[in-house]
Amino acid sequence: PSAQRLLTVEHLAVSYRGIAAVNGITFHVDAGELVGIIGPNGAGKSSTMHALVGAVRASATTLEFDGQRLVGQPTERIARRGIALVPEGHNVFGRLTVRENLRLGSTARPSSTGLADDLKWVLSLFPILEEFGDRQAGLLSGGQQQQLAIGRALLAAPKLLALDEPSLGLSPTAVDTVFASIERIRARGTAVLLVEQRAQQTVAAADRTHVLSEGRITMTLGPDDAQDSTLLMKAYLGS
Ligand code: ATP
C-alpha cells in the first residue's frame, strides 16, 4: 500500500469498573485521511478518543501512531508525537483572550518551525479569531469558541486532529462553518478523526465512516452512502 499509515487501532477495549464501553474495535487512519466515527449517545465514541490520547486506561492488541506504541504513554508525550484532541464541549480558557488561547496551543508543538505560517493559516481559516484577538474567550459564542478550540489544536501542528462532536450544540450556520473548516484542514494535509452524531454530513465528508454501537463497529460507510437515508437510519438503529 502506498498510503502512509498514521494510526493503527486493533481490538481496542475500554471498560469502566468492569463494564465494557468500547468492545474490541479495529480501524486505521492514513496520512491525510478524514475518518468518521458516528453513533448514538453512549456508543463509546468519546471513550475511543480518550483512549487514543491516554486519558483513559485501554487495552489493544495494537495501538500505534506514526510507528510508535501509544498504550501507557503519558498524554503530553502523545500530544507531542502529533495527536491533538479537541474534546467534547467548548474547550477554551474563558478568562484568557483569544490570542492567549492560541498561544497556549503553540506550546504543544514539537518545534517552533512553521509557527508563523500556521498562525496565519488558522487566522485565515477562522477570521473571527483575528478580529476578536483581544477578547476574552469566554465572551465568544459557542460556534466561535469551537473555532478557537480547533484553531488552538491546529497550532500544536498535529499530524492527526481528533475532534469529538465539534458540532454539538451549535447553530446550523456554525455547524456548516465547522464542517467547511474540517474539509480545509484535511485539504492542507492534516489527517482528521471526526466523532459526530451528524451522520449524513460526516459520511459525506469522510473517506470512510465507522458506525459505533454499544462499543462495536457495526458498519463502515463510504461517501456514496451519504444519500442513502435508509442505510443511515439502519446504521443508527444498530441493525
Ligand atoms: P456521548 O455522545 O454521550 O459522549 P459516546 O458515544 O461518546 O457518547 P462514551 O462517552 O464513550 O460514549 O460512553 C460509553 C459508555 O461508557 C456509556 O455507557 C457511558 O455511560 C460509559 N462511561 C463513559 N465514561 C465513563 C466513566 N468515566 N465512568 C463510568 N462509565 C463511563
Keywords:
239 residues; alpha/beta; four-stranded antiparallel β-sheet; 9 helices; 36% helix; binds adenosine-5'-triphosphate
Characterize the structure shown:
The chain has 239 residues and is of the alpha/beta class. Helix content is 36%, strand content 26%. The strands form 2 sheets. It has a 6-stranded mixed beta sheet, with helices on both faces. A hairpin with a 2-residue loop joins strand 9 (208-213) and strand 10. Helix 3 (98-106) packs parallel to helix 6 and helix 6 (142-154) packs parallel to helix 7 (172-187). The longest helix is centred in the C-terminal third of the chain and has 16 residues, at 172-187. The mean pLDDT is 93. Bound molecules: adenosine-5'-triphosphate. Adenosine-5'-triphosphate (ATP) binds at residues 16, 21, 39, 41-47, 88.
Separate helix tally? 9
Oligomer: single chain
Poorly predicted regions are none
Order of helices and strands: EEEHEEHEHHHHEHEHEEH
Percent of residues in β-strands? 25-35%
CA-based gyration radius: 17 Å
Bound molecules: adenosine-5'-triphosphate
Summarize the structure.
The chain is an alpha/beta fold. The protein has helices spanning 45-52, 75-81, 98-106, 115-125, 127-131, 142-154, 172-187, 199-205, 229-237, and strands spanning 5-16, 19-30, 34-38, 62-65, 68-69, 83-86, 160-164, 191-196, 208-213, 216-221. Helix 7 (172-187) links the parallel strand 7 (160-164) and strand 8.
Question: Secondary-structure blueprint of this entry?
Answer:
Elements: E1 5-16, E2 19-30, E3 34-38, H1 45-52, E4 62-65, E5 68-69, H2 75-81, E6 83-86, H3 98-106, H4 115-125, H5 127-131, H6 142-154, E7 160-164, H7 172-187, E8 191-196, H8 199-205, E9 208-213, E10 216-221, H9 229-237
Parallel strand pairs: 3-8, 3-9, 6-7, 7-8
Antiparallel strand pairs: 1-2, 1-4, 4-5, 9-10
The structure holds adenosine-5'-triphosphate (ATP).
